[in-house]
Design brief:
Elements lengths: L8 H10 L6 E3 L6 H5 L12 E4 L3 H14 L3 E4 L15 E4 L6 E4 L4 E5 L4 H10 L2 E2 L10 H6 L7 H4 L6 E7 L5 E4 L5 H10 L5 E8 L1 E2 L2 E9 L3 H14 L14 E8 L8 E9 L2 H12 L5 E2 L2 E4 H4 L10 E2 L2 E5 L5 H17 L7 E6 L3 H6 L14 E6 L1 E2 L5 H21 L34 H5 L3 H11 L16
Parallel strand pairs: 2-4, 3-4
Antiparallel strand pairs: 1-2, 5-6, 6-10, 7-11, 8-9, 8-10, 12-14, 12-15, 12-16, 13-14, 13-19, 17-21, 18-20, 19-20
Helix pairs in contact: 8-9, 8-11, 11-13
């Protein structure tokens, strides 16, 4: 298959003519507003597009995608711009920037939330909360709706409502040949299967409709502990207890408690701390009762309070403008306290050797996976990561471009430590087409969560035994591989 090419000045002129009847803008590097289109949450993910399309309609996107496909032009799609792997950027190709398509419409009677493709979860949370509703969104609300949804989507409501894709009712998508499709379980069911987990490979998602739920009040916040070994052991043991399934198959929080453990160095002092992040659907009294073993471990700071879900989902926002990378990892409960302490040694050395990387985070996300595993199996959508294992992320933050290679290599090295820990626990990390957890989350190879940019992982490692079917559908809907940025799927020959 021929490699994609850059867009030329002649292409831009032709595309402007084709789009003259629409309100879309085509911006060249010298045009006002172009620099905003290539700006990313991580400056390390930015690339100089040859031209940027800023559409306001699916029709404009259809014209542009059809043209780019016919000419073999490289295409990238920017929703929230939160990808740290550069998957929403193109070096010299055509960038489709959806930032002017962020409308959110809520229908309380049907409890549905309809969202344009350029919206962020913050847009969704705010508008839905105004109507007393919420839906499963990202663990950070400044991420884009499109990227998270098309990759599966874990969030702080997953313990009670499943994944984002479990709440997806329908999607409007522009395919590689310019066709605009409304996709759901009855219209284009094969494509609906594929886009729920591998959607970035099949088109530009211009609109989503999600199932809404009554917006919960949450006991939420951060609890900080010093990196003292005996305290860390108490915290890890207590956290394990909260997320271990009992004889009834339930955790102590019954799916209503989600959160995480993280090594952080918060400003202004940048002293290392073990952070416990809490998101509990319930009252303060209920929350304190469940969290008592952690609260008794000797925190140096706590800001737990009652908040709406929309407010709770703002806790982990990070400012745009620095350089960041993400390396997804997986782990199992119980989390070994000695392993947490071993990672701290590596974390402390890295952030000491590169002081500008003090904002770096290692995080273990904790949840009750019962709902996620029970809703569907790993063969019921393109997403292949349902199981009893947990997701984690190694996320270096830095400022100097010259440190890019060192920071990314450190993230790789830490991911290898997590992989070794899985093997130590007798769990085989996912590899190849035969990988993947069982159809209902039974033990097998643990797959990695693709939304945490695995810039070294291969597509077969993300999609597991779903990969052959995805290849068939790719050959049908995108045979020339127009959409090839994140975990590209080779069309079946």
């Amino acid at each position: 298959m021929a490699p994609k090419r850059a867009i030329t000045p002649e292409d831009i002129t032709t595309l402007r003519d084709l789009l003259s009847s629409t309100e879309a803008k085509i911006l060249s590097p010298d045009d006002e507003g172009y620099s905003d289109t290539i700006l990313r949450w991580s400056r390390a993910a930015e690339k100089p597009a040859g031209a940027s399309l800023v559409p306001t309609s699916s029709e404009a996107i259809s014209i542009a995608v059809k043209f780019a496909t016919s000419k073999g032009i490289d295409v990238a799609v920017k929703g929230g711009g939160h990808s740290t792997a550069g998957a929403s950027s193109t070096d010299g190709g055509l960038l489709i920037d959806l930032s002017s398509m962020r409308k959110v419409t809520v229908n309380y009677n049907s409890k549905t939330i309809t969202v344009q493709g350029g919206a962020t979860w913050g847009d969704v949370d705010t508008e839905a909360d105004n109507h007393g509703l919420a839906t499963v969104g990202g663990t950070v609300n400044d991420t884009g709706v499109g990227g998270l949804t098309l990759g599966g989507g874990f969030g702080w409501l997953s313990g009670v409502h499943g994944l984002v894709i479990d709440n997806l009712i329908s999607c409007e998508m522009v395919l590689a040949d310019g066709t605009i499709k409304r996709i759901n379980s009855t219209d284009e069911p094969d494509l609906f299967w594929a886009i729920r987990g591998a959607g970035q490979n099949f088109g530009v998602a211009t609109e989503f409709t999600f199932q809404g739920h009554d917006s919960p009040q949450m006991y939420t916040g951060m609890i900080m502990f010093p990196p003292v070994p005996e305290i860390v052991r108490k915290v890890v043991d207590a956290w394990n207890t909260l997320f271990t399934r009992g004889e009834d198959g339930q955790t102590k929080g019954h799916g209503k408690l989600m959160g995480g453990l993280a090594w952080i160095k918060p400003p202004p002092t940048h002293d290392a701390l073990l952070m416990v992040l809490v998101n509990f659907i319930g009252t303060e009294e209920e929350g304190n009762k469940i969290l008592a073993p952690i609260l008794e471990a000797g925190p140096v700071f706590s800001n737990l309070s009652m908040k709406s879900y929309a407010e709770a989902n703002r806790l982990l926002q990070a400012p745009i403008g620095g350089r960041a990378s993400m390396k997804g990892v997986a782990f199992e409960i119980p989390l070994r306290a000695d392993f947490v302490l071993e990672t701290f040694e590596q974390y402390q050395k890295f952030t000491t050797d590169i002081p500008e990387a003090a904002g770096t985070v290692i995080m273990w996300e904790m949840m009750d996976a019962t709902k996620v595993v029970s809703i569907a199996g790993n063969d019921e959508a393109g997403f292949a990561n349902r199981g009893w294992h947990m997701n984690g992320v190694v996320m270096p933050f830095w400022s100097d471009k010259a440190k890019d290679a060192a920071c990314r290599q450190w993230a790789r090295d830490m991911a290898d430590k997590f992989r070794e820990e899985l093997i130590r626990d007798g769990v085989e990390p996912g590899r190849g087409v035969e990988g993947g957890v069982g159809k209902r989350g039974d033990h097998g190879a643990v797959m990695l969560y693709g939304n945490y940019d695995q810039y070294d992982e291969k597509s077969r490692d993300i999609f597991g035994f779903n990969y052959p079917r995805l290849q068939e559908l790719k050959a049908k809907y995108d045979p020339t591989n127009t959409f090839n940025k994140l975990f590209p799927i080779d069309p079946q020959k």
